[in-house]
């Protein structure tokens, strides 16, 4: 530890402070000689100097100690997790073997290191994890949740330490990933405090001005907010003391990130967000009296302040699957302000702050049923899913999603994500039940497959042996499990039908003593307008296309191709003149140069941002190998670049086809003045080579909002048009869709 090359003077100070802190946090769980062995090992690792710093220049031993402190102090994990964190860098860099760790510290520590080393292998290419890697990571380590808790703590530590880094590009990638993957994961595991910190820091690094605008506003209003909380709390405090309850109360301001989300959702400024804070009442109650005392507090609070019945959340009777228990209500406080009140006990509060780790400790077991259900759903979703943006988006939504509690006719309780339908429920019970589902009885009344379920519903699934999964079911279900099972079933059905249709065609050819030519058949299928061979065979299987008609067309095409081939005049190479070959400069389409000066590659323009000639663009290699072109300011660009950097290719416009036009949607907002629509359309009609394709108008409370689709050649024409529309009286905003 005295090696001056490995530790700077500042790092040496940090090292001893962190070491002391770790001993205080975990000393009671460490075995005899653990500290001594760890100290010798770290001195050896530092003196050999083979532990590299990360892309932010962080000292690996200091970084691991900081993560270990978070794991011990804020999540509540002890010996195996702390030793695993402190030793995994040495194992990863071959200074220590897993066998020797197992021998010295036991299988528990070695198992955690095994998981952490594999995670580091996924990180080896860059400081971010792409969605495919994250999917593999969860599949590999969901069996030992401690490993996932450690990687969340490691990400929190990284986000805390990189505020002053000069490597801003890597910081932006890490921050995007924190918001996209780690914050939802922390939310689902009940680590609400760490989840809020990840979201706030991510906002700070990616939208600096927004973050500090809200932070400054919170600081400006702090005095008046504190005064209001004190006046709200005082009468409640007196009543609770009179009732003989032991408790403490605190006011909690919402996180900057959640305030920003409300501002976006409600389309209002900071001043328009009414529920900026919540009051938390924490009881010191024996476990057998917890519910009784919580409801007693609820009764006292709602006697004093009028509650909003729509905002009551009862997680006392049925806790969330991550163990969260609490009673939430929103009441009308003084000055007509809504205030959220959270009522819970000390035990519940620790679980709410520390999540599943605290839940395990109180239960005394690791296999809590709610956790097992969640892990099973993760594994089923990810094992069967295609690795693409849609799956990861769905997974993220389900991590954040609130739950509804639904009962079977026998009274068994099932937790479903909010918005789940009857069909989701059927698949949640069993995939065979889902596949045969034709409807249900919800609270005794007949219900369709698409009916959305509410908490407290009693659902009896109805089935039929003739029912099979349909493709439009994918529009009905909301859960990943149901979506995955439906896709699997449809693929199996289509595969069987395709095989049957293929056999039918080949048998017909054989009966008519005709030779079956696969290549000619493929050309015919394309000529008939099918995008895939499967679609063609499906039509044969469904009898929407006649087999005999196909054979006749096959024979016609084959005869035509044979006749054409016979008419070809073959030229000799000797008589061929190079002067006849001219460099064709006329482009069939606007030309893009993709990646390393490649022209002529097939590409599609992304519908999310509709790029046109002249836009700054980049290419994205899709799952099926095609290339989609996005604008660099596309709403999805940052996410694609941070999560799929290896699929991004450079692209630039290189040629313009005469007359080629693109559909562009403009969103126009303004005052609902007389003649505003006429003035806008007349400007468009006067422009050369700009066509108006569609227009939709909405007028409300004196405001005019319109979506106009026009056909334009390139960005210069578009910019010129936008400037002219902005001159129309009453128009306030013109934005490209």
Descriptive account of the structure:
The protein folds into 6 domains: 9-161, Hypothetical protein af1432, CATH 1.10.3210; 218-363, 2-Layer Sandwich (Beta Polymerase, domain 2); 369-469, Beta-grasp domain (Ubiquitin-like (UB roll), Roll), CATH 3.10.20.30; 489-567, no CATH class; 591-655, no CATH class; 662-736, ACT domain (Alpha-Beta Plaits, 2-Layer Sandwich), CATH 3.30.70. It is 51% helix and 16% strand. The protein has 26 helices and 20 strands. The strands form 5 sheets. Strands 1, 2, 3, 4, 5 and 6 form a 6-stranded mixed beta sheet that branches. A 5-stranded mixed beta sheet has the order 12-16-14-15-13. Strand 9 (437-442) and strand 10 form a beta hairpin. Helix 9 crosses helix 24 and helix 20 crosses helix 22 (533-541). The chain is globular, with a radius of gyration of 32 Å. 29% of the residues are buried.
Top keywords for this entry?
737 residues, alpha+beta, Hypothetical protein af1432, Beta Polymerase, domain 2, Ubiquitin-like (UB roll), 6 domains, 6-stranded mixed sheet, 5-stranded mixed sheet, 51% helix, globular
Helices, strands, pairings?
Layout: H1 9-26, H2 34-48, H3 60-75, H4 79-92, H5 98-105, H6 107-123, H7 131-141, H8 145-161, H9 168-188, H10 192-206, H11 208-242, E1 247-253, H12 256-266, E2 277-283, H13 290-304, E3 306-307, E4 313-314, E5 327-332, E6 338-345, H14 346-354, H15 356-363, H16 369-384, H17 389-400, E7 403-407, E8 413-417, H18 422-429, H19 431-435, E9 437-442, E10 445-447, E11 459-463, H20 480-511, H21 518-527, H22 533-541, H23 547-567, E12 591-594, E13 603-605, E14 617-621, E15 627-631, H24 637-643, E16 648-655, E17 662-671, H25 676-686, E18 691-700, E19 703-712, H26 715-726, E20 731-736
Parallel strand pairs: 2-6, 13-15
Antiparallel strand pairs: 1-2, 3-5, 4-5, 5-6, 7-8, 9-10, 9-11, 12-16, 14-15, 14-16, 17-19, 17-20, 18-19
Helix pairs in contact: 1-3, 3-4, 3-8, 4-6, 5-6, 6-7, 7-16, 8-9, 8-10, 9-10, 9-17, 9-24, 10-11, 11-12, 11-13, 14-15, 16-20, 20-22
């Amino acid at each position: 530890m005295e090696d001056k090359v490995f530790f700077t003077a500042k790092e040496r100070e940090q090292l001893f402070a962190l070491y002391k802190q770790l001993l205080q946090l975990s000393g009671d769980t460490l075995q005899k000689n653990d500290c001594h062995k760890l100290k010798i090992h770290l001195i050896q690792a530092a003196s050999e100097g083979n532990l590299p710093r990360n892309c932010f220049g962080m000292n690996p031993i200091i970084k691991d100690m900081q993560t270990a402190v978070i794991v011990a102090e804020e999540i509540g994990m002890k010996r195996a997790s702390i030793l695993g964190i402190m030793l995994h860098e040495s194992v990863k860099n071959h200074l220590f073997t897993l066998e020797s760790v197992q021998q010295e510290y036991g299988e528990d520590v070695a198992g955690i290191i095994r998981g952490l080393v594999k995670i580091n292998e996924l990180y080896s290419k860059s400081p971010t994890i792409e969605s495919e890697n994250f999917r593999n990571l969860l599949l590999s380590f969901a069996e030992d949740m401690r490993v996932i808790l450690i990687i969340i703590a490691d990400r929190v530590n990284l986000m805390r330490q990189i505020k002053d880094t000069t490597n801003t590009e890597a910081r932006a990638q890490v921050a995007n990933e924190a918001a996209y993957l780690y914050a939802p994961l922390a939310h689902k595991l009940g680590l609400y405090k760490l989840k809020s910190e990840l979201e706030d820091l991510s906002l700070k690094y990616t939208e600096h001005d927004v973050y500090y605008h809200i932070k400054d506003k919170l600081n400006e209003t702090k005095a008046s907010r504190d005064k209001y909380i004190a006046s709200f709390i005082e009468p409640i405090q007196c009543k609770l003391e009179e009732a003989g309850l032991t408790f403490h109360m605190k006011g909690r301001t919402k996180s900057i990130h959640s305030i920003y989300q409300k501002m976006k959702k409600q389309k209002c400024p900071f001043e328009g967000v009414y529920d900026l804070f919540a009051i938390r009442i924490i009881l010191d109650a024996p476990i057998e009296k917890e519910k009784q005392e919580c409801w007693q507090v609820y009764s006292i609070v709602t006697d004093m302040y009028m509650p909003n019945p729509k905002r009551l959340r009862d997680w006392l009777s049925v806790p969330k699957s991550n163990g969260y228990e609490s009673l939430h209500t929103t009441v009308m406080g003084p000055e007509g302000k809504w205030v959220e009140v959270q009522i819970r006990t000390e035990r519940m509060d620790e679980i709410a702050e520390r999540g599943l780790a605290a839940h395990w400790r109180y239960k005394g077991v690791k296999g809590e049923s709610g956790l097992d259900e969640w892990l099973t759903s993760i594994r089923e979703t990810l094992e069967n899913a295609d690795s693409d943006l849609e799956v990861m988006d769905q997974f993220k939504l389900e991590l954040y999603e609130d739950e509804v509690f639904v009962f079977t006719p026998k009274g068994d309780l099932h937790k479903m994500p909010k918005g789940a339908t009857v069909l989701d429920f059927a698949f949640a019970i069993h995939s065979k039940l889902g596949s045969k589902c034709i409807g249900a009885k919800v609270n005794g009344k007949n219900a369709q497959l698409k009916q959305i379920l509410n908490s407290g519903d009693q659902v009896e699934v109805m089935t039929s042996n003739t029912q099979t999964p349909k493709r439009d079911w994918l529009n009905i279900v909301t859960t990943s499990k149901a979506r995955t099972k439906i896709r699997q079933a449809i693929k199996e059905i289509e595969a069987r039908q395709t095989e049957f249709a293929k056999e039918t065609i080949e048998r017909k050819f054989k009966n008519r003593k005709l030779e079956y030519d696969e290549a000619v058949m493929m050309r015919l299928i394309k000529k008939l307008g099918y995008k895939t061979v499967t679609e063609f065979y499906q039509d044969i299987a469904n009898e929407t296309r006649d087999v005999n008609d196909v054979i006749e067309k096959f024979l016609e095409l084959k005869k035509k191709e044979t006749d054409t081939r016979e008419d070809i005049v073959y030229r000799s190479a000797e008589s061929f003149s190079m002067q006849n070959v001219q460099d064709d400069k006329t482009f069939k389409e606007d030309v893009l140069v993709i990646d390393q000066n490649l022209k002529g590659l097939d590409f599609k323009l992304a519908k999310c941002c509709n790029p046109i000639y002249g836009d700054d663009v980049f290419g994205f290699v899709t799952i099926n190998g095609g290339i989609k072109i996005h604008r660099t300011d596309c709403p999805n660009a940052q996410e694609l670049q941070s999560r799929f950097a290896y699929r991004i290719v450079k692209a630039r416009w290189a040629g313009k086809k005469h007359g080629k036009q693109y559909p562009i949607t403009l969103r126009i907002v303004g005052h609902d003045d007389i003649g505003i629509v006429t003035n806008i359309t007349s400007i468009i009609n006067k422009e050369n080579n700009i066509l108006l394709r569609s227009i939709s108008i909405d007028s409300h409370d004196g405001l005019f909002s319109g979506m106009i689709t026009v056909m334009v050649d390139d960005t210069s024409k578009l910019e010129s048009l936008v400037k002219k529309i902005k001159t129309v009286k009453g128009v306030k905003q013109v934005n490209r869709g």
